[in-house]
Amino acid sequence: MYSREASAPRRRDARCLRVTTTPTAGAETRRCLVIGSPIRHSRSPLIHRLFAEQFGIALRYEKREVAPGTLGSALREFMAEGILGVNVTVPLKEEAYGLATVATERAELAGAANVLSFDAAGQVLADNTDGIGLVADLRSHGFPLAGARVLLLGAGGAVRGVVPALLAGGAAALTIANRTRDKADALCARFAPLGRVDSAALGDSFTEAFDLIINGTSLGVTSGSELAVSAGAVGVETACYDLVYGAAETPFLRWARESGARRRVDGLGMLVEQAAAAFERWHGLRPATAAVIAALRARG
Fold it and tell me: Which residues are designated catalytic?
């Protein structure tokens, strides 16, 4: 059974990346990155700077644009530069996992990685902290998981990372709804050993409200009407959580409000919580998160 603490790496025989260059993080300034496409909007550099300030660590944390299909060569460059670790965002999470030499159990379960670390032997360690970050933030908001019926929208890399943690956190049943039903079916088959997981298509009718709805899809980024989720899925007591975050109300959360859900929150807290787990892996220190989340909220 999956455990939130399942973070010990396992060697993988799958296709992997290995280089002969030995990474050397500077004794005075450590270097880390966040990568994705697009990446300009990322708040990870600020988050990790605030974490580093808690411990007096000199940290140079940058963001780099990396196009899908080019991650292998990019990782070789990063390791040659002495980069300590990399946060991975969309759409590179599954590609990152496929290139790793070793992986934690939670990365293996997800088949996706949002954290890569490099060791002195030139190996690439894949981890996935999305799930533990989400569960930590849900609990901080008092959103119920134990015994909850959860509707998860989407079937991409972000969704793959959170399903095991939601089930381990006590969700009684999880329905994955996706625009392409077969992708939801594939995830159900993948995670069936962990608990009750059902599939649906976006637009399917639901006759009973869910306890928690999580948006893990890009649908509705520009128009809430594109979500096409049955109104029957939402009740007054339904908690709605968007993995997307922003200064303004997201289209999904606007849809949730207009559908009558009183409890709504975006994914900024998850972003900080998953980053804290990555920071701890790289630096061996667990940062406090509440003040960082508050600081980011204040900045808008």
Answer: 93
